[in-house]
Specification:
The chain is built from 3 helices and 5 strands, in the order ααβββββα. It is α+β, with helices and mostly antiparallel strands.
Length: 95
């Protein structure tokens, strides 16, 4: 299932009755607060939900799938998500 920003905004608006513009602003502020530390290489933990972790990937060999040519992929940072125990239990229906 894909959850769009528009769906989240609609949900906030339905739940709290805020004007749509205010809901959009609220969502954007929240996402920026999560993105800021991630772009600085810091992990972000949201209690009861999970942890967004920034991991360093080393340079590695790769292959162009179109041509089959070997190439070196540069080092990069990636974000992974580890869900909290509470979320894991909820997903597993272990109330």
């Amino acid at each position: 299932m894909t959850l769009t920003k528009a769906q989240i905004v609609d949900s906030i608006q339905d739940k709290f009755g805020f004007p749509r513009k205010k809901c959009i602003e609220l969502l954007e502020i929240m996402l920026e607060e999560i993105k800021k530390p991630l772009t600085n290489g810091e992990n972000v933990m949201i209690s009861g939900f999970g942890k967004f972790c920034v991991n360093e990937k080393k340079e590695r060999k790769g292959r162009n799938p179109a041509t089959g040519d070997d190439l070196m992929l540069p080092p990069r940072r990636v974000v992974t998500f580890k869900c909290s125990q509470r979320l894991r239990e909820k997903i597993s229906n272990k109330s």
